[in-house]
Automatic annotation (TrEMBL):
Gene3D superfamilies the UniProt entry points to: 3.40.630.30
SUPFAM superfamilies: Acyl-CoA N-acyltransferases (Nat)
Segments traversing the membrane: none
Protein name as annotated: N-acetyltransferase domain-containing protein
Organism the protein comes from: Amycolatopsis taiwanensis
Superkingdom of origin organism: Bacteria
Stored InterPro entries: AcTrfase_GNAT_prd, Acyl_CoA_acyltransferase, GNAT_dom
Domain N-acetyltransferase: 1-143
Pfam family, one: Acetyltransf_1
PANTHER family associated with the record: N-ACETYLTRANSFERASE, RIBOSOMAL-PROTEIN-ALANINE ACETYLTRANSFERASE
GO molecular function list: acyltransferase activity, transferring groups other than amino-acyl groups
Amino acid sequence: MLAVLDTWWGGLKGEAGAKERALLLPRLYFQHFTTTSFLVERDGGQMVAFLVGFLSQTDPETAYVHFVGVDPALHGQGIGRALYRSFFALARSHGRRYVHCITSPGNTGSQAFHARLGFTTSAVKPDYDGPGLDRVAFTIDLSED
Ligand SMILES: CC(C)(COP(=O)(O)OP(=O)(O)OC[C@H]1O[C@@H](n2cnc3c(N)ncnc32)[C@H](O)[C@@H]1OP(=O)(O)O)[C@@H](O)C(=O)NCCC(=O)NCCS
């Protein structure tokens, strides 16, 4: 997954962006969150898409999508939506009502995608993830779906 981040994110925010993204995937996600995450592969094992998510330990009504990506060659074919649908079903089966996630203000594609899926989008939250790391937050209420 680390190997595809730069291409799949189209080099968004240059070197600083690449560093931020790589730091979002420490090994712990592949040790402790595999049962709430999805990987889509071709027959030969080549990765097509992924969704890294988890059930909130703090809020029993909430699940969280930490990171999602689809091979750019396959954008617009419903793969992202299918991944979210799978995650929503998983979240519901664990009694979760809300799904949250965030993105960078500059990631307009992500914002359009989440809006299309029915997420509400917050105003830009300055320094949300630390100094200079502004974010936009998304929420969906699964009981309204
Ligand atoms: C965002 C992303 C996951 C969407 O995946 P996808 O498989 O292309 O999305 P889908 O084909 O399932 O699209 C679902 C809906 O969102 C819309 N949508 C998706 N990307 C869009 C974009 N960039 N601009 C406008 N609408 C978009 C689609 O048109 C579709 O709407 P429709 O049902 O009316 O046709 C993918 O573009 C991606 O991996 N981007 C780079 C990584 C990234 O930014 N990840 C998210 C932030 S962490």
